[in-house]
Amino acid sequence: MNFVGKRHWFIISSLLVIAIGLISLFMPNGLNPGLEFTGGSSMTLEFDRQVAQDELRISLAELEHPDAVIQRVGEDSYFVRTVTLSETSSGETSEREKILQGLQDKLDVNVRNVDYFSISPSIATETVRNAIIIVGTSAIAILFYITWAFRRIPSPFRYGFAAILALIHDVLIVVGLFSILGRFFGLEVNAMFIAGILTIIGYSVHDTIVVFDRIRETLGRNVIRDLDVAINVSIEDTLARSLNTSLTMLFTILALMLFGGSTIVDFLVVLLIGIVVGTYSSICIASQILLVWENEEMGKIFRKFPIPFVSR
Amino acid sequence: MRRFPLRSFIFILLITSVCLSSLLAQEFSIELAGIKFERGEDSPLGLRLGLDLEGGSHLVYKTKMPENSEMPSDEQMEGILNIIERRVNAFGVSEPNIQRMGPERILIQLPGVGVTKAIIEFQETIDVEDLNSVMTDVGRQTSIIETEDYLSFTIELPSLKPAVFDTYGNVVVPPERDNIKNALDAAFGPDSMNFTITGGVEEAKRLIGQTAQLEIKERICTNDFLDITQQCSDPAYNVDNDLGLTGEDLALAYAGTHPTTGMPVINIEFNSEGARIFSEHTTRIAGTNNRTAFFLDEELIIDPIAVQAISGGKAYIQGPDFTPESVRTIAIQLESGRLPIPLILIQEKEVDATLGADSLKRSFSAGLIGLALVLLFMAAYYRLPGIVACVALIIYGVLVLSVLKLWPITLTLGGIAAFILSIGMAVDANILIFERMKEELRSGRSFIASLDTGFNRAWPAIRDSNVSTFITCAILFWFGTRLGTGVVTGFAFTLFIGVSISMFSALVVTRSLLKIVAITPLGRMPSVYTNLKLESNQDPRTRPTRDRR
After folding, report:
1. CA–CA gap between residue B251 and residue B256 (Å, rounded)
2. Which residue among A263, B28, B66, B112 sits deepest, i.e. has the most Cβ atoms within 10 Å of its Cβ?
3. Residue B84: what are its φ and ψ, rounded to 5°?
């Protein structure tokens, strides 16, 4: 198969998907920030009888929480999110205890507080900053490592840089698609989402390096001198591995999604998209960037196309 | 023909059986050269479970330093930890975990949720009325008692009273918990039940929210009879008089050594008001057996006598059994009472035990199903090497779980996700190697020759890709504590261990097992290890592309 010759198609379609994702991202409510990013309190409540969502909403409004976000999570259970509930230092009842007691009295049901999570708003801004630092630092560290690992072949820095571009490509597509999916399924950006993005970074680079390693080897053998041919041969040779590995990863992730708890669904969605995109980018983006760079056809991608595949 | 790889085979066999037995033994303890090694608990495989799997509460506090001041020092943090530990332990909840997290945060984990509850599991069903009357006897007549099967009871005990100690650590009033337990034993027989206290989160929060109180009092022994250390022979005769001297009057407390003897001492300095009171006080008690007693949160830290009157507000405390460590601890305690640092609760997470158990069960079965799918795929696609890889993967799973247990690493949902992901990475190493082997086979080499070449060719890719994963893990771990949730650190650490072992699994386990297979007749039957039609007489240097084939 000729992958190299279709590079402009790959790059343009990727840019298109990224653009759609970015549009969704920058439209209002681009992402549903989780508690870690906004601050607030959330709890899952289990009632011992059926309670209508409106009933609960009215009761919570009467308990001075008209803005509470209510989601049904089970037959008799709801997920409730409010502003950060304050704590008390002395013997009085805390705000949370007031809500639980209040609901019990108003709705005349037994309420069981299955889980509770609360985070102060002051920490939330810190979380955003730290998340950006983590992603940035990882990218730079990986850039240096790849440059070092490929030091024996011409222009090793390009390999590092191309891997990072592929990584940014993956992250942008995942975040963009997550934003679009979030509009329909109410997915949330939380600490696990960040863990997911970081896993994707690891996986994307992992996958890209396998292809690059093959290019390194092919060029090192000095049989094939043309970069485009070397790249195409390398992609073909690693294709089975790339697809099989993603397939096995997808098996485990799908099993977790279908049979695992709902607690980490947001994380799994990130992984699912990320692994598909990561595999795609290692085949169709990362090494194509190398070639585009080598041929200095950055600007030509849109003007002069299609670019003929330079055959041997 | 190769020799049987005896050494690596024995090594694999040994390490696998050690790991497997460590997993199968729920709890064990080994004592070797005086170092006691105890692992395992009452959970599946004896793994240590995080609160999202086991249930419990997770509180994160942050120090609130005065405006324009820096981060708290290590000594200040130690002082805060010290205070919290004493407060939470006195309260009586079982197994609290209190630890420092990053430069200015403290993590407190409690095993239960909500208010304090007693969980009583009887061996035989009992009458609720009997239990009710016991509770009335111990002054808990209004307590809510819940049960479904008349075997296991939950009793809410809000504001359970801690023990009261005198200044020498003797129990003056036993904790309410013991009272209740004793009353229950008397009523139902001592070995008829399992009694545990959980929860206490609301109470713990109230205790932690309080500022530390340091008070300095004059201690007089009203009994003439003193024991050999010049202490009151019966602590009940001690009377503590208020001096009006508190932590606010103390200017500094630090550990040091005596200028001439070099013995460890605690230096204290009072401000001017404190120095005046202290001077009056020491003038009065100098040479007597009256003591200067330092109380932190009403608990005695130290009570020296005064050798002479001390004016000027600077003093040191020395003692015959002081060590550099003990004076440091005391100085930190005094300092934490002198300048109490308020704490703010920045994060709170509580998970009910049933929800945790449900998550664990679901993740576990999901993991098994995922693993089964992967094994099926590997065996179907790669045939004999695939089956060998399956064995290696099962060994891999045993090794990772065993490391998690022996380290021990607290397993959270994030950790389970990382474990499952690392299975993927372990599979990848095998796939990389098998694809390379296939290429070698395609170019007409024998099974054994292509095995070695396959491993060697796949190594750079495995190395480079795993190193980049390690880099991500390290950075994740580094910032994980700052992100505020244990989820990220748990994920990073488990992934790190998983990927490390995956390299061992692919390079040592799969390889040795394949070598063993290679010397059997199976090694000479092409159809069991590849589904490709072999093309012989090809120049191994040119790679056939799929177009041409």
Report:
1. 16
2. B112
3. -60, -45
ipTM for the whole complex: 0.77
Identify the structural domains of chain A with CATH numbers, from first to last.
4-34+123-303 (1.20.1640.10), 40-119 (3.30.70.3400)
User: Is domain B6-29+361-529 in CATH 1.10.599.10, yes or no?
Assistant: no
- B433 neighbors B510 (Cβ within 8 angstroms): yes
Q: Which two tokens stand for residue A294?
A: 């080598």
Do residues B410 and B47 touch, judged by C-beta distance below 8 A?
A: no
* Predicted local confidence at residue A23, as pLDDT: 92
Residue B162 has, within 13 A of its CA and on its CB side, a CA count of 15
Class of domain B117-198: alpha beta
CA dist A255 and B363 (Å) reads: 9
Which letter does DSSP use for residue B351 in this model?
E
- For chain B, the first-to-last Cα distance in angstroms comes to 32
B387 pLDDT higher than 50: yes
pLDDT of residue A311: 47
Q: Which residues of B touch A1 (CB under 8 A)?
A: 546-547
Question: Are B299 and B287 spatial neighbours (Cβ–Cβ below 8 Å)?
Answer: no
Percent of chain B at pLDDT exceeding 90: 1
Contact indicator for A13, A43 with CB cutoff of 8 Å: no
Cβ neighbours of B488 in A, within 8 Å: 191, 194-195, 198
Q: What is the DSSP letter of A223?
A: S
Could you tell me where the beta strands, DSSP code E, fall in B343-491?
343-351
Which DSSP category does B123 fall into?
A: S
- Residue A192 contacts B where some CB pair is shorter than 8 Å: yes
CA A271 to each of CA A186, A279, B280, B400: distance values in angstroms, whole numbers, following the listed order:
17, 12, 71, 22
pLDDT in tens, A59-107: 888 888 888 888 777 778 888 888 887 765 555 567 877 888 888 888 8
Q: Does A36 contact B at CB distance below 8 Å?
A: yes
Which pLDDT does position A95 carry in this prediction? 80
DSSP string, B296-330: ETTEEEE-PBPSS---SSEEEEE-TT--HHHHHHH
Q: How far apart are CA A163 and CA A183, in angstroms?
A: 30
Does the domain made of B214-338 have the CATH classification 3.30.1360.200? yes
Asked if A97 has any chain B CB less than 8 Å from its own CB, the reply is yes
Can you give the length of chain A in residues?
312
